[in-house]
Structure formats: structure tokens, C-alpha cells
Design goal:
heterodimer; A: alpha+beta; Fumarate Reductase Iron-sulfur Protein, Chain B, domain 2; 2 domains; five-stranded mixed β-sheet; B: alpha+beta; Flavocytochrome C3, Chain A, domain 1; Methane Monooxygenase Hydroxylase, Chain G, domain 1; five-stranded antiparallel β-sheet; 16 helices; about 35% helix
Amino acid sequence: MSTKTITLTLKVWRQNRSRKKGGFEIYTARDISTDMSFLEMLDVVNEDLVLSGKEPIAFDHDCREGICGMCGAVVDGQAHGPLKETTLCQLHMRHFKNGDTVVIEPWRARAFPVVKDLVVDRSAFDKIIAAGGYISAKTGGAQDANNILVGKEVADKAFNAAACIGCGACVAACPNASAMLFVGAKISHLGLLPQGRPEAKTRVQSMIRAMDRLGFGNCSNETECEAQCPKSISIREIARMNREFVKASFS
Amino acid sequence: MLSDSKVPAGPLADKWDRHRFELKLVNPANRKKYDIIVVGTGLAGASAAASLGELGYNVKNFCIQDSPRRAHSIAAQGGINAAKNYSNDGDSTWRLFYDTIKGGDFRAREANVYRLAQLSENIIDQCVAQGVPFARDYGGLLDNRSFGGAQVARTFYARGQTGQQLLLGAYSALMRQVSTGKVTIYPRREMLDVVIVDGKARGIVARNLVTGEIESHAAHAVVLATGGYGNAYFLSTNAMSCNVTAAFRAYRKGALFANPCFTQIHPTCIPVHGIHQSKLTLMSESLRNDGRVWVPKTPGDKRRPEDIPESERDYYLERKYPSFGNLVPRDVASRNAKEQCDQGKGVGETGLAVYLDFADAIQRDGKDVIEAKYGNLFEMYEKITDENPYETPMRIYPAVHYTMGGLWVDYNLMTNIDGLFAIGEANFSDHGANRLGASALMQGLADGYFVVPYTMGGYLASNPMEGVDTSHKAFDASRKEVSDQVSRLLSINGKQTVTQFHRRLGKILWDYCGIVRDDAGLKKALEDIRALKEEFHKDVNVPGDGGDFNQNLENAGRVADFMELAELMVTDAFYRKESCGCHLNAAYLTEDNEPLRDDKNFAVVAAWKYTGYGNEPEYYEEPLIFENVALTQRSYK
């Protein structure tokens, strides 16, 4: 690690509650160590704001190790910033240059209203899962785990889909604000496993119905979701979901 | 002496079965008459809320994040233990029980730990049925790996993201109950008080973090699944929002807080890099299966690791503990890393790190195999440090990770307040003075899926209650207390930020109540914390107002509670005149420099009762009775 410091100009979206109009404000992030994460850089800016009597920038974050899915902002037009397969909390300042201007905005989608500044309401995702993103396995009724054989290849595929962290970057990246990558990932994860087959038909139908009802757009094959997904969920999951949906419609 | 721990009589292996039979039941048709509040949506909270909803109770489930799926259980990497003996290497319920109680340095309750080992098998079955994609072999069977403190391979895993997959499993079960209407989710709510009516927990007061509204919620029982308090140290592997507030407010209402000084310092974390660091990142302990820990033999050797020849390296864990080697329990590995660094053998810019080297493993198994096992961890390491662990050894250092202490609970996981349960990391019950790897996930899910659903029924069936709603005067009093605290924090208008105070508090705890403790240091820590607390209440600056989304205000309340908790931790550490597990008092060491227990005087749970702000807490003691294991000096040599 070679530590350097850089100074950046930030253009940050500030908005108080969803109905009020928001706008950009400009801040300077001074003497930022390149070993810091993007969120630690925002911490420094916020500490300065508090000390000068101003209200700090609200942003969601929690685990800061790229797994909880709580953080996320559009940085210079890209969900979670410029680095591929990286959540905002794992983006480090060594990827920026001294003097850069960085534009920071919240996820923008009808289904994700702004709560404050960079914080949005993603409860629509929970509603989609509640519509069928589960296997109905009652507590206590399970058979011995090794009675269900799942070949390694299938287990790995299911895992790849299950790695989704529900951050919403796919929706923010999509010009239609579609949630198909998120929904497709859950449909694939559960549908690939033998345990998930009995409910495959009702699952895909009700999750897609919920997705449409909640105001997400449709997929038009822009593949921006895959490109900006921090967990590299593949658009093949969308194809698999579409196949499941067609199958369900004709059976 | 402490009130009854309610451990059932009879042989260890039969206790839980017998107790389940003796617990009264609530008729399925009557369950809908009961409301239950579950605070927290991690492994313990989500599994409890889902299972209680499934039984037919009306459940309200609260979390501080925007969705129940974000709870910090999600960050657990390595795996979950179960005594399945799928590896055919001699595992059994008894062995898992013994390893866990020995790993905890004989400071946990036998009956609770045995039950945990028994339930471990059901957990794996349950999770597989839900679709948790555990690692499998080519024949389709489940795969296992070994973990610190054990000589069998009993750990089930899903790459380096086991916690994520288990939590998403519990979350999906929870959302299924949401769809049936049996569970209602209250996200972005922070519990700020537990409401007690006629000696029973009957509800909570919570702040809506979006609108600032102080809300009241009534119920017949309250379950706290609010995690641990490692963030008292400021830097820890915990998520940023992990806090002690819910448990601490329960403590203020009379719940006993047990063994608060038992905090686990995890040996394999990415070292601290600078003053603005906000948290530390864990590198799963599973890495010690293949990584070899070493430092240069000569203090101050600043050569690059690849320039240090084999003969000038000290693989100190393999040298000192030949039978467990790099897989010694966490407390042992952490203490040894500190010892090496204190001798000037630490590596990296700060000298506060040791190497974890994969060169031999890569040569033996090939890069592909190592990548398949630890790919995501290596990637995470590279993102943070800008170094490639396939080519150069990782640098690691211990960091605060888990808290074994927590709210005192009986065998039913109920605190000393009737109707107030504590499960998962929030209670003290299963890990004694040190938790073994891959045991936290096991405990969270055992408590939530398989213990509380039974004991809750037993409580409700044997405690007939009047209906209570939120217009009761006890709710008014709680709401007023909470609003007053919020206004007080906002009106101080001082010159320092909450984070500045938190960082200072963390340094005091790390220096004096960290890996090694001694009486003089603990005395000093107590004075320093009290002074800092006073300064905080005079000079903290919390901007914004209470009727809005205000992250500084949230944090200010949590740090205020951490300060009081810190006093309690130090008081507890000072009281325990022995070394055990994570608690190493420099005055109590064996000839080999290992922790020296005092089983005659301290084979006890130390539980503390709140007696008012600024007053000394009152001490209660639960003697630990060992009928099935012999208390031995732990040895991993």
C-alpha cells in the first residue's frame, strides 16, 4: 500500500423527503487518503459539515464489506461507481485522481422513492420476495440434508444466482428501471434446486406480477444491469426467468 | 446468588426432550390471541419471527436497516457447525458439545451447550430444505471443512458467504410469513425502550428513523435478537449500525447483563490503515486451513516477505501448538499475534500485522483449488489493500469481532424480566469465555428456529395476562423518557462530533480492555471512560432535528449507551480475578504463558444489575456446575 492524498470536488444530490425538489450541491473533499474507501471519504466530508454547523449528507451503508447490500449511489453515472463488480463501500479512493470532479446521485427509479439525499426506499424488493421468493419449508419438518442430492454443477449455478445482495444497482442502471435481474436471480436460485421445483410455476407468476405492480419497468436487453451488478449476476438469470414464465403460462 | 437458571433435571442428553415435554402448550386455535414482538432480523430474529408466525402467533418484527435482509449475520463468512459426522471422522453430538464447552474455557452452561449441539443437525436439514446452496461434492452430497478449535471437519459452508446464504434462507421464511399476514415488518425502526407492566415485558417504544416519530407497540412478550456490542471499541468487524442500545435499555429496566467483558478478538482481520478507518474487515478463519501464519525471526526485519528465506521465518503457531498448528482457537491465535508484534516482529508499515501465507497451499493444490475455496476473500483483500494474496502473503491482525457476553437468560432464553427473551449474540448463553468458529450461526438459528418457539409457548401458557394496549401509562412514561433523551442530545450543541467521541472511547477499551488486561489499566480505563462520558454530555454536537431522518442523532444515542456499557465491561473485567478464554489478565498466567483459570472462585456467570445512572451496578452470580465434563487446562499443543 502506498498512501497518497488527493483532493476532489463533489457534486452531491441533496433532497429532503421525496416530494420536495432536490438539487446538486458542491463540496470539496480535502486531503483524502487513497487507501480510504469511498464511504470513508464521505465520512470525512460529513465530519467537516457537522463541525461547520451544516447538515451532513445522508447515505445508506452498513457492513462496509460489500455483502449487506445497504450502500449504493450512482457515481459519475454508474451504479456503485466506476469499478466493476464492486459495491460502493469496497470502492477505494486510489481509483480517483487528484482534482477530479465526482458526481454522486441516489438510485433513480419510480419504485425507489428518495427518502433523503442519497437514501432511497427499496421496500419494493421485500414485497417482491414476499410474493413468492421462498421455498415453503416449515420449521421442523425437514428430512436429513443429505437425502436431497444436488450435483455440484447445479449447486454452483444456484449459488451464483443466490449471491445477489439486493442492493438495487440493477434497477438504477437500467434505463427502464427494471428489476428483472433481481427477480431473475431469485427465480433461478430457487428454481434450479430440486427443493424449489414444486412451487416454480406459482413463484414466477406471482413474483413477476408483484414486480409489475410495484412500478418497475420492463427489460429491453440493454444489459446495463449485468455490467453494473457488484456481484456479477448474469443476464442469463433473466433468460431463465423468462423460460420459467413461458413454461408456467402454458402448463 | 442469581435466580433460577431453570435447567431441567436428569441426564444431560435427555434434558431438552424432557423439558419440551414438560413445557405447557398453547392450543393452535388460541395462538392468534397472542402478539409477540421480535426486535432484530438477523439469523436469530428472522428465524424466530418466521417460526413463531408459522405457529400462528401475531408477530411484529423490527429492524434498524431498510430491509430485514441486511442484518449483520449476512457478513459471516466461514460456515456453520453441525454434528452430522458426514465426514466419518468421529464427530458426534457429544464431541461438538465438548469442543464448544472446552473452547469457551469452561465458562458456559453445560445444558445450553449440549442442546445447541443436539439442534445443530436440525439446522442443516432446515436450511437445505429452504434452498440454502451449501457447498457440495460431485456426487451431490454436502461438503464439510474444518475450523479452529476442532479436529474434525464439521463445518458446512457456502463459499465464503455462509452467513449471507443462511440469512437469506431465514429472510425468505420470514417473508413467506409476511405474505400470510402473520408477521408484519417494521424496517428503519430503532427500539429505544422496553415497556414493563406488572413486572412483565409488554411492549417496546421505538423511533421511526425516517419520520422521527416515537412509536409504541404492545405485545404479550418481547424477544430481543439485537446482536452484540463489539462496536463499543469503535473499530471492529461489526457493521456500522451494530449497537447495544436495545439490550442496554433492557438492562436499564432491570434485565441482568452477563459477562460483559467477554469480547472476542478475531485473529485474522485486515490491519488498520489510518485514522479515518471506519471499520475492520474480517478474513474468514477458514483461511487458516490452508494459510500458514509467520513472522520474521529477527525483530525489525523490514525485508519484503519473498526476500526472507524459510530458515529466517518463525511459523510460531505451528512451532508452539504442534497438534492444532494454525487452527488453534481464536483467542490463542490473537494473543500470539499480539505477542509477536510486541516483540517487534510485526510486519507492514505499522508493525501491527503478521503474515498469513498461501504459497505452500498454492504449490500443493494449485491456484484453482485455492481460488475455488477462498476466491471471494482474496478478492476482497485485494480491493482493500491493493495487494494480491496469490502472490504475496496476506497481512493480518486481530480485531474485535464478537461478544460472548450479553443479556443473562435462563434455559428458556428468557431474561430475569418475565416475557423478555434474548436470543443469538444478544444473550450470553452458549459460548462461555470464547466462541469457536462457525458457532455463531449455529447458535442464532438454534435459538430462533428450535428453542424460542417452544419456550415462548411454555411462557404464554403458564402466565395468563390481561390485555394491555399502548394507551397504558407505562407506555406514556417510556415515550416521554425516550423523547427527553432525544431532545437532550440535540440541545447540547457542543464542538465535537459523535464520531470523535466514539473513536476515543474505542481507544480506551482497546488499550485497557482488549487482548490483554491488568488491574492498573482497568482502573485507569474506568476513570477515563467516566471523564469522557461527562465531556460527551457537555460537548457533543448533533446537527439536524429529531423529526427527520437523522443519522447523527441515531449514532449519538448509540454512542451514549456504549459509554455506559464500557464502564460495565471494565467493571466486569476488573472483578474477574482470573484469566479465561478471551479474558486474559496479565497477573494470571500458567508457566507456559497460557490463561490460568480460577475454577474455585470464578466458575461463575457474573451478571450485573443497573442501579441508576452513575451508580455502581449490583453483582449477581450464577455458579456453573459441571456434571459431565472435567475442567481441564485447555491445551492445543
